[in-house]
Amino acid sequence: MTPIRLVQVSDTHLSATHAYFGVNWDAFRDAMTAAPPDLLVHGGDLSFNGPEAEADLAHGAAAVRALGVPWRAIPGNHDIGEAPAFSRLDQPVDAARMAAWQRHVGPQWWRHDAGGWRLVGLDTALMGSDLPAEAEQRDFLAEALATRGPRPVMVFMHMPPFMDDPADPAPTTSVIPHAARGPFLDACAAGGVRVIACGHLHTYRRMHHRGMEIVWAPATAMVDVQRGLARWDRFPRPGYLEWWLEPGRASHRLVEPARMFVIDMSGWTSRNNGTTTTLPPWSRSP
């Protein structure tokens, strides 16, 4: 079987009115035009501020469709909001925000079989939300794992499952809430999950847990150089991941295109509640 070439891109933060990171999307678009993948998976934060500006979701989805490749996407906190008890930006996920994502982008969770693998996409905003959709997604994951047959499973989601210690109970908006984390990891470890592919923290990182590889994709948008150096001893750069899937084996490489620029917004976010969503409108010149 010929390996499937899959591209995982995350945290693009696209917008027509707040086009701060469009130059790096241009570089990504050119790379996809030069070498189209068999499948593209967008790992969340497609939009700049989708919970408040539905037009950002429409703009981001149109940009991905314009690539002309098969694609799937899962929502991030800047697309659909956050679990209500962990809503740092006061943008709790709710029915209206979920409907906007479904209208412009697609389902919040999905499965797709390719390259001898079962690919599963999940919405981390629902984890720890106590919304009815959380139980629906949990049932979906159980069914997707139970019916995988001999296929190994690769799970795509926006937030990483944990930072360093899966047992850390501290409240957080960086990773899956503690109460939801344990059952999720138990289901994955028992259900044939071999890879968890995520994003959200705008840096590339690899970890291993209970036989599973956990891979964080970098952002194509902004980075936080100070945090990357202090926390992970890594200078964060924009880019994406290229995966090759064949029966029983998945491998990847980090791609950091020369035309993607390091856009460090930490000066702004340190003064504005840790978010870029307070940036004023800015549209690039033609």
TrEMBL record:
GO terms for molecular function: hydrolase activity. Residues 4-204 form the Calcineurin-like phosphoesterase domain. It holds the Pfam family Metallophos. InterPro entries: Calcineurin-like_PHP, Metallo-depent_PP-like, STPP_CPPED1. This is Phosphohydrolase. It comes from Neoroseomonas lacus.
